[in-house]
Design brief:
Elements lengths: L12 H32 L9 H24 L3 H10 L6 H15 L3 H14 L10 H7 L2
Helix pairs in contact: 1-2, 1-4, 2-4, 2-5, 3-4
């Protein structure tokens, strides 16, 4: 066997590379979402999110979705026509909105030589933006009182 793989991984080298890339992207996106949520909660004096609380899981998922949307928009803004055409082919095959965005990111990571540098640039911009988690902070009372 030319390379090691787990029993649940594909045997085809291209499929294996894509699966590894997808896994790394999902982990990186989850890290960004957690980083943003933790920073927002720290700033408001709230406890860190818990996997047991559905509202916390939703907040993290919303943060991941918001990051993926922004990353996709930023990367596609400067993409060449061929890359945009390939992205259009990938989108309909995905199982859901977040799966679609992850599939697009896998494609972009394989096509753009500076993908991870651009990923980190968007990550830094999102971390600096207090509204970046995908949810508006402060609740209804805070919005009504303007604080």
């Amino acid at each position: 066997m030319p390379f090691r793989r787990r029993p649940d991984q594909p045997r085809d080298l291209h499929a294996l590379i894509e699966a590894e890339l997808r896994e790394r992207l999902e982990e990186a996106v989850a890290d960004v979402a957690l980083e943003v949520v933790l920073a927002r909660r720290r700033a408001r004096g709230l406890p860190p999110p818990s996997a047991e609380r559905p509202a916390d899981r939703e907040e993290l998922e919303a943060g991941a979705q918001a990051f993926l949307e922004r990353l996709t928009a930023d990367l596609l803004a400067t993409a060449d026509p061929e890359t945009r055409a390939r992205v259009a082919e990938v989108r309909p095959r995905a199982a859901g909105p977040q799966a679609e965005l992850v599939a697009v990111q896998v494609l972009l990571a394989r096509r753009l030589p500076d993908y991870w540098q651009r990923f980190e640039a968007v990550r830094a911009a999102v971390a600096a933006d207090p509204r970046a988690s995908g949810r508006e902070g402060g609740g209804l009372l805070r919005r009504l009182l303007g604080r």
